[in-house]
User: Fold this.
Amino acid sequence: MFKILVAEDDAELRQLFCKVLTKNGYISIPAADGQEALDVLDREYVDLIVSDIMMPKIDGYELTKQLREAGIAVPILIITAKGSFRDMQLGFDFGADDYMVKPINVNEMVLRVGALLRRAQIINERRQTIGDTVMEYDSLTVYTDGDKYILPQKEFMLLYKLVSYPGHIYTRQQLMDDIWGVETETDPRTVDVHINRLRDRFRDNPDFEIVTVRGIGYKAVKKNEK
Assistant:
């Protein structure tokens, strides 16, 4: 059974989120702020974190930042009243996997939690499938429509990340940080070069395409769900 840590300083919301998650078959672990969340993580493994941003002691941004800097890749769903584009951008830049703005539909929260857990499981299995296209992480190989492509490492990692969560928008900086590393001095426009190569290579792929989200970044979409 999956364990989900809920970091939320509003006691009523924290209780509600935990109750809904428990009702849907998850083990929920409450934390009143980011520091309590870190204390929980010191004691036990969790599969996913639901976190508010505005919390005392350690806020959601700092919690996410500390976990990513420590190499902890647990999926993080931010649920917050901070609804501006800049707030959302900061959340993703710090390493959040998804972002919801309060007030939320708790049923949608459950759907997003399930999607994030499936994505994490796919990454752990190091194999990704979209339609009839299969990507094998360990061999950097893409199998599609009877063809086999062994990609350069950075191209494969970029494609694998985009396709692991179809429809999710990644900023250029987020892709740079995740694939080239936070300390890299490589020009962020390198992402554009790699995206163009992937587009050329998989132009006729029947299962997915890479879409530019003007002014933000990129996403992969299933061709039958555009």
Observations:
- The helical segments are 11-23, 34-43, 60-69, 85-94, 106-125, 153-163, 172-180, 190-201.
